[in-house]
Amino acid sequence: MNKNIRLWAAVLALCLALSLGLGGCAPKNENQTAAPPAREGVSTYGAGENLAPDGSPLETVYVPGILEFDRSLQPFTRFQTSPNGLYAFDELAQKLYEFDGEGRCLREWSGGYADYEALANPVSSTWRLEAREDRAARATDYRVLCLEGGQESEALSFRCENGTATLVGLEEGFLLYRFGWDENGVNAFTLESYDAAGQLLQSRDLGEWMEIYRTGDGLYFFGFDSRGVYRYDPVDSSLTRVDSVPEDFRVCGFQGGAVSQTDVLYLTDYSYLYRHRLGSGENEPLFRYDALFLSEGVAPVPIGGTESFFFLDLRNESSPFRIVSPVAKSSLPAEKKILTLAINEIIPEEKARHLQYGSFHDEILDFNTVSRDYELVVRNYADCPDPFLALSADLAGGNAPDIIDVRGFGSAICSPAAAEDLLPYVQRDLGTDALLSGPLAAMITDGKLLSLMPSFSLVAILGPASLLDGREIESFSALSDLAGGAERVFDQSLDRESFLLWVFANSRRDYTADQAEDLLRFAAALPEDNMQIPEGLTEQEYREALAHGTVFPVDYGPIRDGLQRFQLALIADPLGRTLTTGAASIPETEGWLGERVSALGLPGTESSGIYLAPTRELMIPQAAANKEGAWAFLSFVLSDRYLVRGFTGSFSYGIPLTRAAYDRGMAQYEIWMDGQLSGTVNGMDYELRYDPENAKALFLALLDEVEGVCRDGDELYTAVRRTAEAYFSGDKAMEQAASEIARQLRIYHAEQGQ
């Protein structure tokens, strides 16, 4: 029967391919724009278009890359130029940093936004401004402090009743830039110069708000009203206008002569970044960036001491930090080779701009950013009547994609006859020691690695240790007796389809007729739909709330109330802090049960019965035109940045396959394992106690005992499910259905050589 199914599918796919132009349907290729012909002498690389505003080729190509900091930062950390690279302010952590041009931390210290703002106003290491707000008097008291011989002394103190002050340290004294207003609301801007003893030397009215910038050898003021650039002369404390900024341009920053021989000003017209050498009167376009999704009003930030620039790509949550650097055109190929990733995802129109690549959005953005050789585009089969058959037609008809997101098409697409063996690639470029050995072994079929699962969950039954420890559970009937009835094993947390998927899909198990009968009898006691509806919601309201993410399908209420004794758990990490939808938590289950939990594999089997459930899965078809390029992307996806959340250190989409990401995440979980959890499930606040050592040990044991992969879509599961449904509907007797399932399993395992 299985051979007939495969033959029928192959014939249908081939007919469909021929009748529909080798495509099955026309998958959406919204982001697969035709590559423009390479202009002679002009690279197709760059942060934007490699043409100046007048259409002439830019002399230097600026190529974007990923800037990785050696500290964990939030995506929306604030940045500005420092003399040595970049200043950063992490508002959540209330920390300030200075990084060099390669993301290495030069120094870090605690501080708030006022301290960050002060970094923009250059102060030498000798001088410090201390401010204390007197809210009752609506005034601020300031002290100017001088550091000499390791000791601080006060050089000046003053009060501002209506205004603020900014300190600028000099070699022989300091400047105070004051902004204030009178009782009529008239603003005043004053620059005062002082000697080292704090004696006033000169005071001048500036007449407008100014920003202050220090380069390696100069101090500059930029006037917002006059648009003038003024250089400060320390000899007579004068300001000399040396240049001006056009009305439609914004100042990004200054750079000292160490990089460009002369002091330069970086400007933007919100499309291009320009270099303006002071006094030259010319704006040199460097690169176009208006398609780089910067935060509104933020232009690229010059990185002090380099010719590179920093910016935020707000489309990317995994690595929003970007660097744009100049490279020689001769080092780049004329154009990139196009790779195609097949997906089957419905992307809402309102999210298409920020999620045009589907589930691998961040990875594709980054890959296309840093790869010198390849450009990855998406072919979306979501609008095809049958995405599986449409993709099969493309594979058979010479229009194969280079990579397939298996989850969108079902595991039947990932067969030994269609999938490239990835194990030789892993051994050649990564080494199997770079991956978790147990899960990797579970992913290998007959010595071949047919797909790569960058992250996954573990599937096991969790239950009270008092019921499970020291017992051999030979059947689901025995498990039902322990729970006090089949309805009390999982209550409403598991439906028939999910149960049958777990016990049959991608199984290497071979059940006897008696075991199949036990499984069918237990499945019949399960609900057709697992609807744990929180109190106060109708079924329609619950479904809408699920869709909007305001309630969660994992509900511990029945466990708390004693209605449910066990849970078929999708375990994605030791604490349940990943982004994996529907994942359960060992500590929460233990906390709700009120006792230590144990894990149970599949009752009545000699093996562990602990399985992987891929949360992300990619394959390279044997018919792919560019397998090396496809592997370049698959290995790229195994980077820590996509497997571990940078700021929190927790697993992103489940347990990572790489040892590096796993060890990094587990180190963070070790810190969090404090024996208590709090949170909210479906509007109910909770605070639970659990045994952290047991939770960690149980998680590690499950990872070591994993023996196979459980996923949807294989033909064995389809056949078994059809037979089981015939029993549930009364069309077949229990004995007949169980015998047929046992026979189907024997045939399948014989065909597979098991």
Write structural notes for this entry.
With 754 residues, the chain is an alpha+beta fold. The chain is 26% helix and 28% strand. The strands form 9 sheets. Strands 24, 25, 26, 29, 30, 31, 32, 33 and 36 form a 9-stranded mixed sheet that branches. Strands 1-23-22-21 form a 4-stranded antiparallel sheet. A 4-stranded antiparallel sheet has the order 2-3-4-5, with helices on one face. The longest helix is centred in the first third of the chain and has 18 residues, at 2-19.
> Can you tell me the residue ranges where pLDDT is under 50 for at least 5 consecutive residues?
1-23, 32-43
Kindly report the average pLDDT value: 85
The percentage of residues in β strands lies in 25-35%
Reported for the largest beta sheet, the result is:
9 strands, mixed
Could you tell me how far the N terminus lies from the C terminus, measured between alpha carbons in angstroms? 18 Å
Q: How many helical stretches?
A: 21
What overall geometry do the principal axes of the alpha carbons give?
Answer: elongated
Fraction of helical residues: 25-40%
Tell me the radius of gyration: 32 Å
Number of DSSP strand runs:
36
State the secondary-structure class. alpha+beta
Topology readout:
Layout: H1 2-19, E1 61-66, E2 78-82, E3 85-90, E4 95-99, E5 105-110, H2 113-120, E6 127-134, E7 139-148, E8 151-160, E9 163-169, E10 173-181, E11 187-195, E12 200-205, E13 210-214, E14 219-223, E15 228-233, E16 238-244, E17 250-255, H3 257-260, E18 264-268, E19 272-277, E20 284-288, E21 301-302, E22 309-312, E23 321-327, E24 337-343, H4 361-370, E25 374-380, H5 387-396, E26 403-405, H6 423-429, H7 437-443, E27 444-445, E28 448-449, E29 452-464, H8 465-468, H9 476-483, H10 487-490, H11 496-504, H12 513-524, H13 539-548, H14 557-560, E30 567-571, H15 586-593, E31 597-600, E32 611-619, H16 627-637, H17 640-643, E33 655-656, H18 659-672, E34 676-681, E35 684-689, H19 692-705, E36 708-709, H20 715-728, H21 734-751
Parallel strand pairs: 24-25, 24-26, 32-36
Antiparallel strand pairs: 1-23, 2-3, 3-4, 4-5, 6-7, 7-8, 9-10, 10-11, 11-12, 13-14, 14-15, 15-16, 17-18, 18-19, 19-20, 21-22, 22-23, 26-32, 27-28, 29-30, 29-31, 29-32, 29-33, 34-35
Helix pairs in contact: 1-5, 11-20, 12-21, 20-21
